[in-house]
Each structure stands twice: as C-alpha cells, then as structure tokens.
Amino acid sequence: MPQLVIFDSDGVLVDSEAISNRVLARMLSAEGLPTTLAQARSEYQGLLLADVVAKAQKALGRPLPAGWAESYESARDEAFGADLRAVEGARDAVEGVSAAGRRVCVASQGRLRKIELCLGLTGLRALFAADALFSAESVARGKPHPDLFLHAAAQMGASPAECVVVEDTATGVAAGVAAGMRVLGYAADSDEAALRAAGAEIVWSMRDVPALVAAG
Known about the structure:
The protein has helices at residues 17-30, 37-44, 49-60, 68-83, 90-99, 112-121, 147-156, 170-178, 192-198, 209-215; strands at 4-7, 103-108, 133-135, 163-167, 182-186, 201-203. By secondary structure, the protein is of the alpha/beta class.
C-alpha cells in the first residue's frame, strides 16, 4: 500500500507554468530568439534552469548575457508575487492524502528557495513538514533521471514501491517511472498523450488524487 505521496510543485500544486514561461518567452525574444508562450512551454517546460539556458544559447548560437539567468529568476519571482495561485483542488489533494494517514512531500526541479516562495505565496506551505521539500539542486541529476524521487523517498523513509508520484510533465513522469514508483499524471493543463506514453495513470482533477492513491 502507498505510504508516501510525492507531489511535483510547478503545475501540480501551484499554477506557475504559464507565468514562468510567459516571462521566459518575453526575455528570450528580447535577446533575439523569438519565442511565444506556447513555444516556451513546449521547448523548455520541465527543464532545469541550467538546461533552459544551454538550450536557448544553442538556438541563439551565442551565450546569453552574463547574469541573464538571475535576471530571469528575479522577473519570474516578481510575476509570481502578482499572479501566482494554487492549482484548483491542490489543497484538497494534499489534505485528503494526509487525512488518510499517508505522508506527503514535494520534489521539484526548481531551487528550494523557489519551492518555498511558491508554496508560501499560495498558502500551501503549512501542508508540508519543514523537512519535506526536495529540490533537484540536491542531487546529481534532475528529472527525467530518478535521482530526485529516490532521494525524497529515502529522506522520508519510504521504499520506491511505497510511493506515488503526482506529476504534470512527461519528464517528471519518466523520472517517477525510472524510480520504480507509481505515477499519476495531472493532465488538466498538460499533454495527456505524452503523459500516458511516459507511463502515467491520468488524473484530470487534483481532487481525485486521494481516491486514486487509496485505490492503487
């Protein structure tokens, strides 16, 4: 039976993907790489920021200016402060899982500072223990490698077989599957076919997560 549910942050708990990718598209376009919101989400969503920079630089054929990544993070965080909201049903999902006696944690590609900021802005931080937030900056390889999810499980004292991952990107699903975990793919604002192909069971509402976890 599942003992630990590992939630991704961006796109699963907080509705951040459109905001961050809108800022990314604007800043890449300003550097001479015309990028729409749809293109930013298709090309860069789910990647580590370092990989975003590397991919953009390859497309540009030159380095981005010194300090570009820091400027992007600053502009993104400012936009979060103005517009960030929790994903509909996210609070119900976490509270429902916890009420059933299962532990919960967060495992995200983003830096720990970003995870704390987003959960704090949306009022979700108190749903997770102080030591239950995990970032890809703490492991050698981010998603789609299994390192982050295996690290989170080990820190929370659960075996991979006891874990359920909730993800919204094919990259994240692939990481969960590679870790030997059951994966729910939240498809309300994602590519259902890509999530399925990566190995996820599809969920359309975060409010359905507790029942799906229990039925697993």
